[in-house]
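Observation: inputs received (chain + D-MYO-inositol-1-phosphate).
Thought: call the complex predictor directly.
Action: predict_structure
Action Input:
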Amino acid sequence: MTDRQLTEKIAETVKEAGKIILSASGTDYGTDSKQGHANYVTKYDRKVQEFLHERLSSLLPEASFLGEEEGEDVFREKYRKGWLFIVDPIDGTTNFIKGYYASTVSVGLFKDGKPYIGVIYQPYLDHIFTACRGCGAFDNGKKIMSSSLPLCDSIIAFGTSPYRTDLWQKTMKLAGEYLMKGQDLRRSGSAAWDCCMVACGAAGLYFEFSLGLWDYAAGAVIIREAGGVITDIYGDELKFDGPSSVLAYGRGIDPAELVYPERSNA
Ligand code: IPD
Ligand code: CA
Ligand code: CA
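Observation:
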């Protein structure tokens, strides 16, 4: 199987998983709380993850599987060799629970600890973003490139790290600084979607102070293949071995205009 064929097969599976999100009905989402402020998991997050675990494991039996709802927020040393699926079954669970129609399914495939394939599906809009290393990035099969516009003409997307109240103030400070430099701000509620928006050029830049690996694993491949840049929020290389801050931007942004926050241990 070529890399493109593998990407297509993953995309088909991810689209099927999206149907589980669309099938949600009634008021009982089986919602449980997780660690942090207003952080939830529903029976649909679990269902989508189980579905993907089973289907992706039969597609590539040699691959390990790291899913957000697996209960182990741990990047293991063994993942640095071979294949690893990194899955966020519903990115934007709060949107999902509230009926905000802005959630995604995000599947990254790493090879030897590095992002290799990325697939992100927004089932309400029926848009699927795909990329594999060296093959380019696509939105519903159409090649995409990140924006060539400068910061002053760009939408700035950001995430609030909602489960980390300690990061809210510095998030809003940075958002305020970017508002002065850019065109306007957006907060979607799905980090994977924000990455897609940078990749296709709708947004010029995206930042968030704290994300799980599953939030940016797939997005990283899609952004890079679309000619964009993804680093941590200080401009340092991502390690791809666990939670991190993220800064992503398109081709037109002059790095000299970026705003780097003060470093902290958070
Ligand atoms: C969250 C969303 C949100 C971002 C948070 C993520 P979840 O993922 O991507 O946009 O701000 O940092 O944790 O919990 O809905 O999968
Ligand atoms: Ca997520
Ligand atoms: Ca999630």
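Thought: report the result.
Final Answer: Helices lie at 3-22, 43-59, 93-98, 168-181, 191-200, 213-225. The two ends are 42 Å apart (CA to CA).
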